[in-house]
Amino acid sequence: MFFFGIVALLAVPTPAFGVTSSLQSILRNTHGSKDYGYPTDLTRDLLPVSLCMIFYLESFESSQTRTLLTLESRVDYWRDEPFYTGLSHGCTSTEADVWLYNGTLYVGHDQSALTASRTLESLYINPILDVLERQNPESPFVSKPTKNGVWDTDTEQTLYFFIDVKTSGVETFKAVIAALEPLREKGYLTTVKDGKTITNGPVTVIGTGETPLDLVAPVKDRDYFFDAPLAELTDAKYADITGIVSPVASTDFQKAVGKITRDTDPILGDAQLKALRDQISTANERGIGARYWNTPYFPIRARNLVWRTLLREGVILLNADDLDAVTALF
Ligand SMILES: *[C@@H]1O[C@H](CO)[C@@H](O)[C@H](O)[C@H]1NC(C)=O
């Protein structure tokens, strides 16, 4: 604890009020010294927000000027990298919209947003691999290989990586499975064995959008999952799905729960609250976590009340475009 306290203090550029001048001088002189860094300190100041925010490219593109909290000064070339933006806000989940063209997976929220250099590999696979390699160094002090997650403050926390398939499902998802190879090779993915046992890894890949259920559910040994439709879990097609296939199921909040018509507490009407509770408990009984997207973003008061209600009712991931707002609120 003591060690961590020192590290946290050093991360503050000007020593906090109340620190004596002699201690301030020690802090100034030792700041930057190798003795006070450690191999896995890349994410040392970042606390994973357990109820996470999904980060969309749209929101990123409209907020390029936003300061990247903790990582800003060291690495401003990361500004164009959505994965790092989410990471720096403590997001335990990230999402990429992928399009397959001529064998390459490009990333962007629609076709006109695509460029030759913004690929799944360059924007997600390589950066995630780079962070994990830093969190799992080889050194004479490490007695056996580690499988730490991206969070130095919580190495057991997995990063949910939603891959939203936009082009033809079967072909595109097969390309996604192949693209995961660098993470797979290092043992960084959450896996399923014999269709029964889940072994948590630093990254849990969940196919969404056009991802075909048939490419996931029948596969006994795999390292990818399926984002089931949360509001349709009782339909025959999804009746057998458990957390082994879908650790998380999602749905459109406004369609599945309803439009928000007030901004006072309670924010949901009785029928809306019942729908929400039924969906979450159906999921949880099968070991599936619930996630809602398309929650209202305005008025701010209504948005915040919906976020609070979802957290209280037990969603596993909170979807938010305004990462600064959500981290300030919780
Ligand atoms: C795919 O390949 C075809 C044929 O070589 C080419 O005309 C087309 O521009 C390529 N598309 C992209 C997105 O690279």
UniProtKB/TrEMBL annotation:
* PANTHER family on file: ALTERED INHERITANCE OF MITOCHONDRIA PROTEIN 6
Reply yes or no: does the keyword Iron apply. no
Please give the organism: Penicillium olsonii
- Family the entry assigns: Belongs to the AIM6 family.
What are the UniProt keywords, alphabetically? Signal
User: Signal peptide span per the entry?
Assistant: 1-18
| Protein origin, superkingdom | Eukaryota
Question: One biological-process term from Gene Ontology?
Answer: lipid metabolic process
Q: Which InterPro entries match?
A: HAT_RTT109-like, PLC-like_Pdiesterase_TIM-brl
Upper lineage: Eukaryota, Fungi, Dikarya, Ascomycota, Pezizomycotina
> Which Gene Ontology molecular-function terms are recorded?
phosphoric diester hydrolase activity
Q: What is this protein called?
A: Altered inheritance of mitochondria protein 6
